[in-house]
Amino acid sequence: xxxxLVGFEVVGVDIWPQPRxxxxxxxxxxxxxxxxxxxxxxxxxPCQRYSGISVVYGAAANHPDLIAATRDRLKGSGVPWxxxxxxxxxxxxxxxxxxxxxxxxxxxxxxxxTSFPMMSPGCAHGHHRKxxxxxxxxxxxxxxxxxxxxxxxxxQPVASWREAMGIDWMTVDELSQAIPPVYTEHIGHxxxxxxxxRAAA
Length: 201
Known about the structure:
Low-confidence stretches: 128-155
Strand content: 5-15%
Largest sheet: 4 strands, mixed
Shape: globular
Helix content: 25-40%
Distance between the termini: 29 Å
Structural class: alpha/beta
Strand order of the largest sheet: 3-4-6-5
Radius of gyration: 17 Å
Mean pLDDT: 82
């Protein structure tokens, strides 16, 4: 959605059905889907292998490691690209974005490896009037990682998560995998500048 707000025509590809995806969508394997005709590519390989919860429970090896293969594929595309994943993922010189620095009342750190220069506004934890309090392992925190969404925790209706992330069309499970649109809107401005610079060169 953030890329659309910047002016991109968005096409989604996922191996699983995405019935609420708000743009053109192809159910297909992103590792083999044709990349011809696109001006830029944003890839989000599965994050479960690198997530903190997988490490805690010793389950990281049960999930695929697709970042290197994704990077190789994107480098061969000839267009600007972005790879998104969680902290701990083996991205190459990534930029970290946080909701607190982009006007959202939550902390959700995500890493972005890009083929073009991009600045990060940093974090601004504790500077928002409205907070979304989340319980994790018996204590309250001001964060919103994937693993605190599940289970429909008491006092945390899906409407609160949608408001906090700026997403009104997803289920709780979908929100747990999502990045807020303000992240891709931020990236999209740098991406559009890169495309325009290449066209002018």
